[in-house]
Design goal:
The protein is an alpha+beta fold and 270 residues long. The chain is 24% helix and 22% strand. The structure holds the ligand Nc1nc2c(c(=O)[nH]1)N[C@H]1C(S)=C(S)[C@@H](COP(=O)(O)O)O[C@H]1N2 and molybdenum atom.
Length: 270
Amino acid sequence: MIHRTISSGRPKAAPSRRTALRAALAGVGTVSLAGCDRLSNNAAFVDVLKSAQHLSHGAHKLVAGRNAIAQEFSQSDVAAHFKANGTLVPRDADYKALMEGGFADWKLQIGGLVEQPAAYTLAELRAMPSRTQITRHDCVEGWSTIGKWKGVQLSHLLEQVKPLPNAKFVVFRCADSMDGPSLDGRDSTYYESIDMDDAYHAQTVLAYELNDQLLPVNNGAPLRARIERQLGYKHAKYLMRIELVESFNMIRDGKGGYWEDNGYEWYAGI
Ligand SMILES: Nc1nc2c(c(=O)[nH]1)N[C@H]1C(S)=C(S)[C@@H](COP(=O)(O)O)O[C@H]1N2
Ligand SMILES: [Mo]
């Protein structure tokens, strides 16, 4: 019950994280949300934190606030060249065929725990309301680049497909096999996942433009995720399919992403 209150990110959830948390804490004694020190001395409060699925995740959100906005920059801060990392051109035959056709036959599939599964062409996505943001991309390897992204907010798409009440995570499925096109049938395509707080966050955008140009293949064409409050590996490139799930335990090695299955943290808050 307490866990649900803390982790729910639905727009129709409690008016604010602070209010929700205060409600959760009402039963454990009178505490002020003003001071983290005092809170961490409160055993009952620590229990509330421990009940969260991921402590660092919950702790980050308490400090940053669920609606915290990642810093945005101005045009003059934009780097002349946005570095590319990880897959630069997917080797997978399916992707290559789409690329050779200028992505005219590509569609973003959205399904799983939704009322109305849907599929959108690039033209359809481009015709939707857009958001442009200049943000700094921080890779876990230690480099950063500031770029200007334009795309559709994930929240807009979620409003169309209507997540079911038990949808807890959004899973991004990508076109690129990390171990090379699989010969033994083992799926090694890149994937990632975020919770509903990040899914509905204003800066969570599915981008089709980088620096006023069509998104280059190196950076994830035709569509890539921007999850601005987290490290680079969360920003899935070469999006093919989005799935709403209750849990990612049953997907691949169960850690919620390609790099997570290889030891990285699921919540990569900056
Ligand atoms: N599909 C896919 N998405 C991916 C990766 C990848 O290899 N494949 N690499 C991740 C990592 S580690 C980083 S830092 C960023 C790099 O994005 P960029 O190539 O636009 O710089 O994409 C992330 N998303
Ligand atoms: Mo990265």
